[in-house]
Amino acid sequence: MTARGSRIDVIADVRITGEGRELLPFAGVDDAALYDVILADGLIADIAPARALPRRGEVLDGGGAWLIPGLWDHHVHALQWALGVERASVREAASAAEAAALAAHAPVRSDGRRIAVEMRDALWPEPATVEPLDAATGDVPTYVLNLDLHSVWLNSAALRREGIAPDESGLVREEAAFAIARILNDVPAADADAAVARAGRAAAARGVVGMVDLDMTWNEETWRRRIAGGFDSLRVDFGIYPQHLDRAIALGLRSGDPLRDAGTDLVRVGPLKVITDGSLGTRTAACSHGYGDDPHNRGLLTVAPDELASLMTAATGAGIGCAIHAIGDVAGSHALDAFATTGAVGRIEHAQLMRHADLARFARLGVGASVQPEHAIDDRDLADELWASQTALAFPLRSLRDAGANLLLGSDAPVAPLDPWVTMAAAVFRTHGARAPWRAEERLDAETALAASTYGGSLEGSRIEPGALADLALVADDPLGVTEPELRTMAVHATLIGGRLTHVA
């Protein structure tokens, strides 16, 4: 019986969609034509009309379902995502009091801390203060992480435990918030790895074959341990942070190289990740105009332009690509400047507010746009209120594509779900549910969204053709011709990495 872990030799009776389909027999003549896809040595060896070739070896019956390239999430915080799905959420809270009440029901961990996640305080009728959180949570150290991960709300007991001088809000932001998150994520390795393994299997069940892991830690050691422990659900490119750059260079790590001493190419060295500004929800993204709730606040640059250029120069000289977090338009311009002056290769992460004149620079410089379309759906009201005075373009997608940028879609999980179907639906329809599309002129066509959800991105997306890697997903419907709810909830029948089943329904 075909099961998870099986090596597949033939995927039988499938329909094929997406880029490259025009090269198949019957393309444009019979859209319902069925094919057999022959696999060998982890690659697609041949594609033929169903039963035109002998079906030898292990056969996966496609049953008329649609075969697509395996999907990638280009921006994930793997451990925080894995732990976050098991933590109490305050996402639905409409006020500080409601969020505090929900946080009070979070379980107390063995270390005495209580953790809640997915706070969205930017549009609460009153600002967060420590008083309602103290009233609801008492003497148990309680931490409420913002959905955007750039701030944490602490009660007085938590402030005392972490040695933070109390203030009226109880909020810590940016690097101080990241430091708190690292403390909260410091769980026993066995527990952390088990959570990531569960989350990896869940991602495989959604057709995901790979992710770029940008956890804020020394990821090489972590992933060597996970691979040794049997992790095999996903391919992983892992990020390197500035505090670890010298170590990575000294060890000779280069982007694209397989994990050292691991005996597998499942995990590879990824990019240098540099966070150069804050976020919209925390009102710290570096913008050229003030925020709607505080016209004097234009956010902040957390890495100066000359320091950014120095980091990128060092990484480039060592063969390490760059992934530069830039949400506000000021940060985005500085990031593009740094790519231009250093000759670095890589991408800008988020690009949520971009100057019109900067859009064409992505293609000219060969810089990818690593974007998270679901953020536009989640933050549309925030953008309309807090960025009302901005002259730059908020959450561009179609404009980036039309300017020639290579789009790389992701989730920023746990900020949005690690589910490429949610991501693609947000990109294609720019809405969820009954609301009208937000800035509908920025919608992507479905074919671009699908290509941007594969390893190479919208300009170099994976194709189903002989010689291609057998990283594939078998899905219920053609993703190029479904509605928004159908795309978000696409049923995935099977997922394969190099011809090996990582999920079968």
Task: Give an overview in words.
The protein is of the alpha/beta class. Helix content is 29%, strand content 22%. The strands form four sheets. Strands 1, 2, 3, 4, 5, 21, 22 and 23 form an eight-stranded mixed sheet that branches. Helix 1 crosses helix 6 (189-204) and helix 9 (305-317) packs across helix 10 (329-342). The longest helix has 16 residues, at 189-204.
Head-to-tail CA distance between termini: 13 Å
Counted by DSSP, the helix tally is 17
Shape: globular
* Portion in beta strands: 15-25%
Structural class: alpha/beta
Helix content: 25-40%
How would you sum up the major sheet? 8 strands, mixed
Radius of gyration: 23 Å
Integer average pLDDT = 95
Secondary-structure topology with pairs:
Blueprint: E1 10-16, E2 35-40, E3 43-49, E4 59-61, E5 66-69, E6 71-76, H1 78-84, E7 88-89, H2 96-103, E8 114-119, H3 130-137, E9 142-146, E10 151-154, H4 156-161, E11 171-173, H5 174-184, H6 189-204, E12 208-213, H7 219-228, E13 235-240, H8 245-250, E14 267-275, H9 305-317, E15 322-326, H10 329-342, E16 346-350, E17 353-354, H11 359-365, E18 367-371, H12 373-378, H13 380-386, E19 393-394, H14 398-402, E20 407-409, H15 420-429, H16 446-452, E21 472-475, H17 484-488, E22 492-497, E23 500-504
Parallel strand pairs: 1-4, 1-5, 6-12, 7-8, 8-9, 12-13, 13-14, 14-15, 15-16, 16-18, 18-20
Antiparallel strand pairs: 1-2, 2-3, 5-21, 9-10, 10-11, 17-19, 21-22, 22-23
Brief sketch in words of this structure:
With 505 residues, the protein is α/β, with parallel strands linked by helices.
